[in-house]
Amino acid sequence: MFKSTMNQSPVMNTYNRLPLSIQNGKGTYVWSDDGEEFLDFTSGIATCNLGHCPPHVQEALQEQLTRLWHTSNLYHIPKQEELAGLLVEKSCFDQVFFCNSGAEANEAAIKLIRSFAKKNVGKQANIVTFKQSFHGRTLATVAATGQEKIKTGFEPMLEGFIHLPFNEDQSLQAIKEISPTAVMLELLQGEGGVIPADPQWIKELSYICKENGILLVVDEVQTGMGRTGSLFLYEQYGIEPDIMTLAKGLGSGFPIGAMLAKARVGAAFQPGMHGSTFGGNPLASCAGTATLKAINETDVLRNSIEQSQYLMSYLEALKGHHPFIKEIRGRGMLIGILIEGDAIELVKIALNEKLLLLSAGQNVVRLLPPLTVSKEEVDVFIHKFNKVLQHYEEDQHG
């Protein structure tokens, strides 16, 4: 294991890192610099959806490395066109803008909304987002985020955002009265505590947006690319958004983000209005194309649904044996475990059991196994996690 302090490392002190240095990874496992094996149920925070170093993507990237790495968006990029075509084919959208991350994808969406408002409404945009949401770390996406702790130290915030309670009927009434340019939301709030949107609430929200000419924007940075059991989570809600943002799982760990839009909305962008030096370059587009093909052409989604159901059944059983577990929630391979106490402490105990977990807020443990996880690996997880829960319970009660 590797331990560093701010005085030892030249890397800026912006993360509360755990005392672990990961050197290698394959599938659902990673290995530390001293050769210890860890079961990884974080997937790089919902990024390595196909596991670490998936063969399909690895082979495609190795081949692309011998051809071309980067040219810029001043020229046509065939791999980018291919990936855009696949995304459009598999979604309800018509156009794609490529960037490097989820924050950049959401930033692009915010700019597109503002341009759309100027051109079609003739006024400045206002955007409704929701409390406990998380949309990124740029100044615009921080302003969009519904968590005060993310904003602290960066005031004054960019204007034009209205934060309403998530899953609340009063918010639907407020949206009718405000009639904003757009409503932007996560259909399953990840960083905010793994909170799924209520299906009936989303159905009513979608209807209000359509009836009042309000753009509906879904942030699928964490939920997209099969994470919740379908390629995109909006499909499970039976809605058609106007804009969608992706990143994380799109490139299997290679940095890439994307904003998708309906043609009438995308028309608000013209050459020179937005861009990205690295966005959708040959390597990134190659990773995205190989990832999407692997999800579409193999049994990845079926496996993720089966193993999610198997995992959830065991988690519910563990809940019955550990009273400090209050709720199991989520969809597919994005699962939140609401506990009494500090989720970070439980994550630290899991590290001692060679198990990698995440938190989502103060009292939610977040599980993000790869979609390729096997039944045998779920069994290993349950064995390890039960020991973690026992140790946590002992620590809490002396």
Describe this structure in words.
- The protein is an alpha/beta fold.
- About 40% of the residues lie in helices and about 15% in strands.
- It has helices at about 45, 55-65, 80-90, 100-120, 140-145, 150, 170-180, 200-210, 235, 265, 280-295, 300-320, 345-350, 375-395; strands spanning about 20-25, 30, 35-40, 95-100, 125-130, 160-165, 180-185, 190, 195, 215-220, 245, 255-260, 325-330, 335-340, 355, 360, 365.
- The strands form 4 sheets. The chain has a 7-stranded mixed beta sheet with strand order 4-12-11-10-7-5-6, with helices on both faces. A 4-stranded mixed beta sheet has the order 1-2-3-15.
- Helix 9 links the parallel strand 10 and strand 11 (about 245).
- The chain starts with about 20 loop residues before the first strand and ends with a helix.
- The relative contact order is 0.16.
Summarize the structure.
The protein is of the alpha/beta class and 398 residues long.
List the quaternary state of the chains: single chain
CATH class of the domain at 77-297: Alpha Beta
Strand content: 15-25%
Largest sheet: 7 strands, mixed
Terminal-residue CA separation: 28 Å
Return the structural class.
alpha/beta
Fraction of residues in helices? Answer: 25-40%
User: What coarse outline follows from CA principal-axis ratios?
Assistant: globular
* Overall mean pLDDT: 96
Please, how many helices?
14
List the helices and strands and how they pair.
Blueprint: E1 22-26, E2 29-32, E3 37-40, H1 43-46, H2 55-65, H3 78-89, E4 95-99, H4 102-120, E5 127-130, H5 139-144, H6 148-151, E6 161-164, H7 169-178, E7 182-185, E8 188-189, E9 195-196, H8 199-212, E10 215-219, H9 234-237, E11 243-246, E12 257-261, H10 263-266, H11 282-297, H12 300-321, E13 325-331, E14 334-339, H13 343-352, E15 355-356, E16 358-359, E17 364-367, H14 375-396
Parallel strand pairs: 3-15, 5-6, 5-7, 7-10, 10-11
Antiparallel strand pairs: 1-2, 2-3, 4-12, 8-9, 11-12, 13-14, 14-17, 16-17
